[in-house]
Amino acid sequence: MRVRLIPYNGKMLAFVLFALLLVSCSEDKLYYGSDRPLEFSADTISFDTIFTAKGSAVRALTVYNPYKNPMVIEHISHTNPVFKLNIDGQSSESVRNLRIEARDSVRIMVQTYIDPTDDTHPIREMDELEFLCNGMRQQVVLMAFGRNVKRMRGRELSSDTLVTSDVPILVQDSLVVSAGTQLRLGAGAVLYFEKKASLIVYGSLVAEGSADAPVLLRGDRSDYMNTSPPLSYDQSSSQWVGVCFRSGATNNLLDNVILRNPTIGISIEPSDMSETVLAIRNSQIYNASGDLIQASKAKVLLENSLFYNAGGYLLNMAGGECDAYFCTFANYYQFSWGGRTSASIRQANYYFDRTGQPVSQSLEINLMNSIVYGSWTMELSRDEWGQAPLNYNYYNCLLKVKASAVDAHFHQCYYNEDPAFQCMVWDAALHPFEFDFHLTSSSSAIGRAKQSIATIYPVDLDGKARTTDGSADIGCYEYY
């Protein structure tokens, strides 16, 4: 192997070292011009539905220096004390002379705390986080929407109670309605539930909202997960336990109710079959990590309502009776941490008692003018055990089923034809984590409902007429 020797050239080496030193000094020199604005990860930091006397989650703002020279922010400040800051690791409402190295950044953590007031309306707090750098002023908007709430912890109602729309209720563990007691939720009433909270009914729950002011039952969090695109906790499942109707609960009604993001939406224990335990009308129930509705030996009535997205069943009938008119059952549940485990509807002629033993119980289930659809090829499940009858009938329904499952119990139904919902899949760009089960013009549900039933339910879930053109559509929404 031959090695070539290069003569030492002191002048060249000195020149290279000098040039490197100049570049280093140039890039380390502070920039004082006013033509280089700071860059921010967001132009607004917003907090939605912050409860008074309870701090918010922390939101982060990143401030970038994208240039090749260090810069000094002369002043960072704001004026509204409801916003609390941690600036580059320092808890302070303002800082001076904060240096950002070349092509580097600093983080500002923002939190809000709103004091209670006597106001029954949402509270809006605004501020601007101002940055002064090289004579240039830039602002990031700070915004928070707060609510005064009435807190209930370990509360058992032993006398009839009315909840109105004046002040929302925050249930912090469980709210129990005793036997012989009625809880009435008026139009516009809102109940927020913390993570392990539930509504347990031994007596009666009557929730009567309106089209303009539905009753709302939901989890208490409105901040966002660290997902892409960002997912609000209010759009995620399993944010509270759900509503449980114990044995003996009677005359329960959900009318114009929105119930969302529970673990199990509604569970019904074995009941007296001589009375309807629960009627659900003009309502939307969705986004459960388990079953959406779980009923054992219970009489249930479902009318003009939308049930969608569950990790378990949308409707799990284990014995009892269920009639459903003009309902839409749609299951496209999928989160990155878990997908579906069950068909949309389960029909079983038995249930399990408190000891875990199966109990034979007849089932009578009838669906009329309803849609049962989803991401599975078979959205109806039959589960038989013992000798109790299992009777099922589907009339003028649009169903996602295998051909082998169709028998004499299906009457003028339509199979595996596209309901053409407005939005039934996640679209990260256009509709992140949003669903819309209104019909589009190509829907196979249009004009196929049984008209005699439509005269009993003349308006759809939106309050629009079904009967004006003489051919009603299947499902809870009429196409317009």
Can you describe what's shown?
The termini are far apart. It is elongated and about 85 Å long. It has 480 residues and is mainly beta. The chain has two domains: 39-146, Immunoglobulin-like, CATH 2.60.40; 149-414, Pectate Lyase C-like (3 Solenoid). The model is unreliable at 1-8 and 13-25 (pLDDT under 50). The chain is built from two helices and 44 strands.
CATH architecture field of the largest domain: 3 Solenoid
Number of helices: 2
Helix content: under 10%
Structural class comes to: mainly beta
In the predicted model, the low-confidence regions spanning at least 5 consecutive residues are: 1-8, 13-25
CATH class of the largest domain: Mainly Beta
Tell me the major beta sheet: 17 strands, parallel
Shape field:
elongated
The portion of residues forming beta strands comes to 35-45%
How many domains, in number, for the residues? 2
What is the alpha-carbon Rg in Å?
Answer: 30 Å
- What distance separates the N and C termini? 86 Å
**Number of DSSP strand runs:** 44
Blueprint (SSEs and pairs):
Elements: H1 10-28, E1 39-40, E2 44-51, E3 59-65, E4 71-77, E5 83-87, E6 90-91, E7 95-100, E8 104-112, E9 123-133, E10 136-147, E11 150-152, E12 155-157, E13 161-163, E14 169-171, E15 174-177, E16 182-185, E17 190-193, E18 198-201, E19 204-208, E20 215-219, E21 242-245, E22 252-255, E23 257-260, E24 266-268, E25 278-281, E26 284-288, E27 293-303, E28 306-310, E29 315-325, E30 328-331, E31 334-335, E32 338-339, E33 345-348, E34 350-352, E35 358-360, E36 363-368, E37 371-374, E38 380-383, E39 390-395, E40 398-399, E41 410-411, E42 414-415, E43 421-423, E44 436-439, H2 451-454
Parallel strand pairs: 2-10, 11-14, 12-15, 13-16, 14-17, 15-18, 16-19, 17-20, 18-21, 19-22, 20-23, 21-24, 22-25, 23-26, 24-27, 25-27, 26-28, 27-29, 28-30, 29-33, 29-36, 30-37, 33-38, 36-39, 37-40, 39-41, 40-42
Antiparallel strand pairs: 1-3, 3-8, 4-7, 4-9, 5-6, 5-8, 9-10, 31-32, 34-35, 43-44
